[in-house]
Write a structure and sequence with these properties.
about 180 residues, alpha/beta, seven-stranded mixed beta sheet, 3 helices, about 25% helix, about 30% strand, elongated
Length: about 180
């Protein structure tokens, strides 16, 4: 019944949409305060054009890109990943994650970056998430940069298994970044 309500402009809508779910959850009702915890602002990552679409790319060889049939994200992967990263950093570090508007009052640390790869590598049969992070800790004008990557086997290359594998890889990258950022 829900698929009858969704329009994707021209084509038949997929049976379901993909999203990301954090591996670590935030306690409901817990209050965190900037008076007792460090703050961080996490920006929505920059993405290449292939990730600006709601589809899941499959890299075939060095220059060919296809898309997983019937696989579409519920919103752009950059926003999904930013939200997953914010939840993971909060849960693992105890930091208070601020919006861009809130950070005007208390800049704290700033994490930005580029989501370079968020799809399937057909040659290796893996879902791959690659994020190039840039971290500005506090008021110091020194950036730290680091590449994070996770690979999770996926077979067959279909919407369900690809969505689950990308979710797992995204959570692995988010956990690596949270450990790097620290409390």
């Amino acid at each position: 019944a829900l698929s009858a309500c969704i329009s994707f402009g021209g084509g038949k809508p997929p049976p379901s949409l993909l999203t990301l779910a954090p591996a670590v959850t935030l306690p409901v009702g817990e209050t965190r305060s900037t008076s007792t915890a460090a703050t961080i602002t996490i920006g929505v990552p920059v993405v290449p054009q292939e990730l600006a679409a709601p589809r899941v790319p499959v890299h075939q060889g060095g220059t060919a890109v296809a898309y997983v049939k019937n696989a579409q994200w519920v919103e752009p992967p950059s926003r999904l990943f930013a939200r997953l990263l914010a939840d993971t950093v909060t849960a693992k570090t105890g930091r208070v994650v601020l919006s861009n508007r809130q950070s005007q009052l208390d800049p704290g640390a700033r994490l930005s970056g580029e989501l370079r790869f968020f799809g399937v590598d057909a040659a290796s049969g893996e879902a791959v998430v690659t994020f190039d992070a840039a971290l500005l800790r506090g008021t110091s004008p020194v950036f730290e940069k680091r590449r994070f990557e996770a690979r999770v086997p996926v077979a067959p290359v279909e919407a369900g298994p690809v969505g689950a594998a990308l979710n797992q890889a995204a959570n692995q990258v988010a956990a690596q970044i949270a450990d790097w950022v620290g409390p």
